[in-house]
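DM from R.C. (forwarded with permission)

"hey, sorry to bug you on a friday — could you get me a structure for this? deadline for the figure draft is monday and I only need the backbone to look sensible"
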Amino acid sequence: MLRHASIYFLFRAGNGVVALLSLMLLTRWLPAEQYGRYALGISGANVIAALGFQWLNVSVGRFHGSRGVAPDQLFNTARRCAAVVGAAVLLGALVLAALDWPVAGSSGFVLTVAALGVTLGVHGLHMQFMNARQDVMRYGWLTASRAWLALGLTLAAVWSGGLATAALAGTLVGSAVAVALLGARKPRPSDAAQPQSGLAPELLRFGLPLSLTYLSIVILDAGDRFMLNHWHGPAAVAAYGAAFDLVQQILGAALNVLYLAAYPKVIAAWERDGNEAAKAALAPLRRATLTLAPLGALLFAGLAPEISRLMLGAHVAAQAAAVMPAIALAVAFSGMRAFCFDIALHLRRATRLHVTTTALMAGLNLALNLMLIPRFGAWGAAVASAAAFALGAALSLWFGRVDGLFDNVWIDLARSAVAVLAGWACMQVTRSQLMALPALSQGGLIETTLPLLLLCAAIGGAAYLGTSELIRVAQRRYL
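My reply, with the result:
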């Protein structure tokens, strides 16, 4: 796991730099309302990719390497399914553009978002193939090329005077070129796995019910932005979207790296040797996720003002800092659930339980959004997301308890909670002491933000890790 995780991390770190550059520059170059429209367009494209293609990606990941499934046949079948879905989406976008529905935006905006959604879905399918084959280097180059091409073309479009639609078009072209150049190649026919008839129905039976799950995920990930736009306008979406994207691009990406490195090994161990082997293969991912997710939430919540001033444009920084603590909790719970706890359900192909969990999360999120967003705006949306993802993490643990893959996980979570409190206290004391120094409060170090951020992060992180390790040692001695 360590070797693959290191390679994934290097590429994801580079992609994270690209994403942060895009966030920093676009929140400065675009007016708040236009950045809000851009964020809505990205959310709409992600909705299309999730509902249209994610079920297919999950099916490919589950069936690749299974006994009796030929990789080349799986590749061809998945591409045909993707072509049908893409054609249906583009046709629907043309109809919507022809109707000229004011809520959807201009025809150019609608068509660009639809095409971008299809491109992101196809890009995700190619990534899934390469991850299933453990072709780490090609996977990394595909993601890196898409990130840099999309960044360059998006910034060029905005720099030349374009607004939200032009920025989305730059992302679309960059993503399409990356897939055309570095997408997955058809595997050679294998003698070890005989072609299986009726593979498409198998993919549909396993993956299509998960579309209900991804509908729920859409409500969780994008519904709040559309509701914010409805009640408070695109400018409110700008601050909320910038804060959420910032946390997701750092903490969420780090947790995703661990998952990508470990998931194929866990699947292989389950298929080969069963429950105990899968539990052993999952153990490093479990330890790393339950350490990193709370630590990331601590740092983003405790240092929200400094992070926002450093990373975001002035017209969104203050509002983003206000909602960042709740967003950090939401991303941490979301990462623990999606990239760790849900593995138990995937191994059992427990589609119904997965759908039930996500539907309950979406229901809670929708109800809280309807109650909180009209009155509290972005802060209400952030609290609703944190509550919904916390419920989802708890439900995934409860439904996946059968195989014992996460025995005693509540002890680990309690230890992390105590360590978070210790780290938070140390960061707050450090900040108050520094701010009390006359030489610093009148300028210099405090105004630069970065030194204060690094010092508080180092002290808070050290307190978190030290407290967690002390509790772990005490537990071992007690046992």
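R.C.: lifesaver. Residues 31-207 form one domain.
me: no worries. Confidence is low (pLDDT under 50) at residues 443-447.
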